[in-house]
Amino acid sequence: MKAIAVTRYGGPEVLRVLDLPEPHAGPGEVRVRVRAAAVNPADVVLREGGLAARFDLDPPYVPGMDVAGVLDEIGEGVATPLALGDRVVAVVVPRGERRGGYAEHVVVPAASVVRAPSEVDDVAASTLLMNGLTARLAIDAPALPPGATVVVTGAAGAVGGYVVPLAKADGLRVVAVAAPADEPLVREFGADEVVARGDGLAARLREVVPGGADGVIDAALVGSSILPALRDGGAFVTVRAYDWEPERGITVHRVQVSDHVHRTAALERLRDQAEQGVLRLRVARTYRPEEAAEAHRAFERGGLRGRLVFTF
Q1: Comma-separated ranges of CATH 3.90.180.10 domains in the chain
Q2: Where in the chain do CATH 3.40.50.720 domains reside?
Q3: Which pLDDT score is estimated for 57?
Q4: 74 partner at 20 to 30 Å CA-CA among 3, 243, 246, 302?
Q5: How far is CA 204 from CA 191, 195, 197, in A?
């Protein structure tokens, strides 16, 4: 099968198209014939070698944690409502011999696969689960009650663009942090207030929320400089490791999505919310496998308002 892989860690230039043996579904697993695979930050970390020890990966290394395609093999003992030939989406965690989704076929635990959103093509569908699940976990972590105020940094980005509408659907007041040019977009997502990013952010947020926000979901990795915008005892949610100490009774929650990819009900809920129009699936550009290095360079340059997707 065709796969985008690396045999040594490094920059985008190490990505190669290789011909690898087709994997087959074992007990508790299913196989997906991949039609589209979205690019995620974790794919860059894998390419650079940052996941090697944690996931005990075997070479060659195939990135890719978000795929859409067709269910084409069901392993022994799998009880699933899905049938061969169904259009599906899956979240993939490469571990050991299990490779990522930048390939024509990928094998995943059956719990990590759900029916694809209806009326959505494979390219758009491939952008849903990884960032959607990250957003869902980030909102759930502090368990804020309806009516509470949450600040979302990077509100126009891949994760933040899902946090805003999901938080609104949960009844939270959402204060979005974004570039002025992105204000119309994040208001379309449902933000109640929009505050410009950049120096002095915490002070500007305090002008909008004088008593301090109940929570911050830091999708843009602003870090500890935003803590003054939180009330005493507020909650800070991050998607990366941090090396600073919280203050004023603030609790810090770190989201690690790879630990939750078996939560089928959460994946199904995201699929349903995409069908209902709560979530907007945004694609910036598609690439062929042979353009993998170009795609990763574009991803690392940033400034995207949609996802980059490989098509197979």
Answers
A1: 2-128+281-311
A2: 132-257
A3: 76
A4: 3
A5: 16, 7, 9
- 165: part of which helix (H) or strand (E)? helix 160-169
CA distances from 16 to 8, 90, 108, 233, 297 (A): 10, 23, 23, 48, 14
Q: Which residue has the tokens 């699933």?
A: 80
Average pLDDT, the chain: 95
Q: pLDDT tens across 73-110, in order? A: 999 999 999 999 999 999 999 887 789 999 999 999 99
CATH no. of 2-128+281-311 = 3.90.180.10
β-strand partners of 98: 95
Paired strand residues for 36: 68, 311
Residue pLDDT, tens place only, 128-180: 999 999 999 999 999 999 999 999 999 999 999 999 999 999 999 999 999 99
Q: Check whether 54 has a pLDDT greater than 80.
A: no
